[in-house]
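Final report, closing paragraph on structural work. Over the funding period we assembled a curated collection of sequence-structure pairs, and we close with a single example.
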Amino acid sequence: METILIILALIVIAAASIYAWKRFEQTREKRLLEREYDTAVALWYFARDVKREFTEMTRQRIDVLDFRKITVPHSQGYRVLIELTGFNFCIHALPEQHGRGGRLSFFIDNSLTLRAADHNGERANEQDEEYTGDFNS
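Its predicted structure, as stored:
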């Protein structure tokens, strides 16, 4: 009888452990998706501000972009890179630790079309799918 109770207790403990692990993984996945979404939104707003500054530069015939008017976004788990070429730009956001801080790499340029894909921490590019923010994709 004691053996049956011990086995039953072990089964209950194992089931509780499996449930707790699944909940932990679900919570982690949800945080990862939210972090990716927050990064995408911040990146889009940053690109919009950069494009606005380029338009203003052209209108006023200024040759230098004034970064005092633009705040580079900080996105938890991501690093943001900007490339400027003439009056064009592209912005990349890369996960600092692929799989932990995020999985998607982001790309946006003058078109303000945000693109994303899982490139194992490498840069996304203009050939990647447009990011829609859909958590189910």
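The chain has a mean pLDDT of 87. Strands lie at 78-85, 88-95, 105-109, 115-117. We thank the funder for supporting this effort.
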